[in-house]
Every structure is written in structure tokens, then in C-alpha cells.
Amino acid sequence: MNLARQIEQYLPQPLLELVKNISGQAAKQGQRVYLVGGIVRDLLLGDPSLRSGPRFDLDLVVEGDAVKLAQQVAETGQAKLLAHHRFGTAKLRYENFTLDLATARKETYVRPGALPAVTPGTLKDDLIRRDFSINAMAISLASNDYGELVDPYQGKSDLEHRLIRILHPGSFTDDATRILRGVCYEQRFGFEFEAQTARLLKRDIPMLDTISGDRIRHELEHIFEEDRPELVIKRLSELGALHRINPSLKGDGWIAEKFDKARRLKKPSQLPSLYFCLLVYSLSEKEIEQFLARLNIPAKLSLAMSDTLRLKTSLPFLNKSSLKPSEIYYLLREYEPLAIQANAIAAESPTARRHLQLFLTKLRYVRTSLDGEELKKLGIPPGPKMGKVLQELHKAKLDGEVRTRADEKKLALSLSLKS
Ligand code: CTP
Question: What is the mean pLDDT of residues 112-119?
């Protein structure tokens, strides 16, 4: 099968020219370059929207030396070399496209979950080390067979039958992140696991314990970029995989409802962190500690997640409908905005939700017109007293007791006269 037409149709023109040039450069040295992985699958599915958006990442496999090739491409100024590694991989950037180039490799897993030992290999070796048949296809970019599909493991047939199939029975034991990846594809495309794959996936769920926190977190981040990650979370829960990551995590209808609400409120770039906060909403203090440690969650997100639960325990204070805006402000200002957002979505009480939303949309931006310099001009000396006056002005502004600059001046002077 030849996919030249699909490549020309779906790849943005500048990117297409770049990959052709890369392939031409490689050919001069007797090397071959292939498109691999998700792009091949998506081209066969014929849905360019699957890969549209501001970023467009491509994976290329080189039967030859990928790092040297990437360096040569960068030297000619066609793209920028972002990184290269000992393992024969390099990353090029051109406009907002990134290209991952990898030397075709053979992998052997020394122990489950560990990173594999790598040696150079053929394209076929490189494809069989991959997660699923639908991701183990390549398209030649060489001029003599440009666009030819390379499909040694029946990926195209599995795509047509809407099946997710591993390439060998030890696949999930070698790399249990494939359990999470497989469920992600199952839900994204509405596919099914092929019977033996489904059986081995269930059997190998305990192998998730062999995966490092960073890798599990990375897969969750990947899941949180899906259009409807709650479907993946629900399915992982049904399969017992979510439970294996942390016994207290739930993937029920509550999560589905809150994730959906999050999407209506936030831009896509802000969603993954918010999903993390909502995912742990039902955890206890001890359970969240375990989760943060297990997934090696970075400091900033970790703080937002802990704050989410800390604020949840303070929600009863926000239930009162008689609260003044300044009371809401001083209660909430010490929490991470993301934690406040998560509670504004997750809180049971409509009054609490309204107060949280008021803080996020209005109160946190309220500033007085007068600052310390201007108070000095009014004759108020710097020091604790000025601090107090500024705080009282801010409260009055929050509560709508002062509106104009003149109101503020008047209040500042009267406050300064009090002892
Ligand atoms: N891959 C793999 N096993 C993994 C991770 C990745 O075999 N644990 C291979 C697959 O061939 C996959 C490719 O590396 O297609 C690229 O991985 P990634 O960018 O994570 O996924 P995509 O296939 O591009 O899919 P997505 O559309 O989800 O980005």
C-alpha cells in the first residue's frame, strides 16, 4: 500500500519539505528514513484532526546514524537541534514542529519495568519493540519507494478490525505503562483489546508496581491530554489498574461530572493540572501523601494538590451566605489558585462554590488606588500603622465601602487619626 497521497495531503507543507530533505540527506549516505508510530496510524485512520493544533510532532526512524543525520540537518540551517543522546536519538525543531529522530534499534529488557538495553537494529527490529500493532507501522520516505507502508505485524488489519494487540506475550511485563497506553487508545478510538491482549493485560496489572513514579505520572499526563480523560480513568478503574497505582483512587461518575465541568471552565493547557487535583479529591491526607510520593509529583503541582484537600476541609467556613467579600478574601488568599479552582468545581455546597468563584474571578484582583507612597504624601508615616491603614483600605475596597480615590483618601485620613 502506498500512502504518498495521504502524506502530501495531511502534513503541513513546510514540515513535508523538511522530512523530504532529511530523507534526501540520509540517502546520500546510503541510509533510509521512515515515518513511524502514531502519525502512520493516524494517516491510515484518515483523520488529520487527530494531529492538528499548534504543535505537530513527528517520529522518524533512521536505518543509519540518527544523531549524525540530525546534526547535519541542523548545520544546513533547516532546523534547530534541540537535543541528542547517547542512545542514538535526536530532537529537531522547526517553527512549531518537533521531529524526533531515532536510530533503528533493538531492545532487550533486563528486568520488568526497567529501561531496556539498546543496540542498533533494522526497521523491523525497531517496530517489534513497540507497544501495539497499530503503532508498529512505518512509511518509507526514500525516493525509490516514497510512501510505501511497512507493516510486518498486521497493524493495518488490526486498525480495520478496530483492535489493540500487543506484539508478543511479554509486552506488558516488559513495560507495564503499555497497560495505561492501551486503555488510552481503546477509549480514544473506541477500539477493543484483542482477546489474548485483554487476558494478558488483566494478568499483568500487578506489573504496574515495577514502573517508576515518573513514568506513571508521564502516562497520566498523556491521558489528561485526551478529549475525555474520564473515560480512560473509568476504564482503568474497572480493570483494577487505577487501584494498583493507589488503592484509594476512584474513576466513578463523580470524576466524569467534575472533569466535564473543568473543561467548560478552563483552557486546554490548564486542564491536566486541574484533573490531577480533582483525581485526588476523595483522598485522605495520608493517602495523598502516598500518591504524591508514588508519582514523584513536582513541587508546584504537589502543593496545589495538597492545598486542594486542605481547602476542602475548610469549606464549611465558606458555606455561610452572610460572608463579606473581605472575609472570603482573607480565608482564601493563602491557597494556590488551582486548589481554589478545583474546589469551586468539586464543592458540594452551591454557596461555597459561589464564594470560591467570586474569589477567582474578582476578589483576588482587587487593589486599592492608594499605595504607601501616596499615604506618605497624606502625612501617614511608614511603619506598622501604615500597614494597618493599607489593609483596612483593601478590606473596605473589597466590601464596596470605598469606590473612588477620594473615598480612599478620606478613609485613610480618618483611620490615621485613630490611635
Ligand atoms: N512507544 C512504545 N511503547 C511505549 C511508548 C511509545 O512502543 N511505552 C512507541 C509507539 O510506537 C508509539 C511511539 O513510540 O507510536 C510514539 O509514542 P508516543 O508519542 O507516546 O505516542 P503516539 O503513537 O505518537 O500516540 P499519541 O497519538 O497518543 O501521541
Answer: 77
C-alpha 68: how far from chain center: 31
The residue whose C-alpha atom lies closest to atom 5 belonging to ligand 1 is 131
pLDDT of residue 300: 94
Contacting residues for 32 by C-beta, under 8 A, at least 6 apart:
23, 26, 62, 63, 64, 123, 140, 141, 142
Q: Is the pTM of this model over 0.85?
A: yes
**Nearest CA among 351, 329, 328, 341 for reference residue 265:** 341
At 35, which helix (H) or strand (E)? Answer: strand 32-36
Calculate the alpha carbon distances from 144 to 29, 30, 148, 248, 296 in Å.
15, 12, 10, 56, 48
Structure confidence at residue 51 as a pLDDT band (50, 70, 90): low
How far apart are the CA of 215 and the centre of ligand 1, in A? 13
Mean pLDDT of all residues belonging to the chain: 91
| N-term to C-term CA, the chain | 88
Query: What is the reported pLDDT for 54?
Result: 44
Burial track 49-81 (b if 16+ CB lie within 10 A, e otherwise): ebbeeeebebbbbbbbbbbbbbebbbeeeebeb
Ligand 1 pocket (Cβ < 6 Å) reads: 37-38, 59, 130-131, 135-136, 175, 177-178, 181
In degrees rounded to 5, what are phi and psi of residue 10? Answer: -95, -30
pLDDT over 50 at 112, yes or no: yes
By the 8 A CB rule, do 413 and 419 touch?
A: no
Neighbouring residues of 303: CB distance < 8 A, sequence distance ≥ 6: 336
Distance of CA 125 to the CA centre of its chain: 30
Q: Provide DSSP, 191-231.
A: -EE-HHHHHHHHHTGGGGGGS-HHHHHHHHHHHTTSS-HHH
For the CA of 41, the closest atom of ligand 1 is 23
Say what the alpha-carbon torsion angle 319, 321, 325, 329 is, to the nearest 10 degrees.
Answer: 0
Q: What cell was used for 135? A: 503503532
Percent of the chain surpassing pLDDT 90: 69
Q: Give residue 34 CA to ligand 1 midpoint distance, Å.
A: 15
CA-nearest residue for atom 27, ligand 1, is 38
Going by pLDDT thresholds of 50, 70 and 90, the confidence category of residue 50 is low
Q: What is the arithmetic mean of pLDDT over 212-236?
A: 95
Q: Which atom of ligand 1 is nearest to the CA of 177?
A: 8
Ligand 1: which residue has its CA nearest to atom 23? Answer: 38
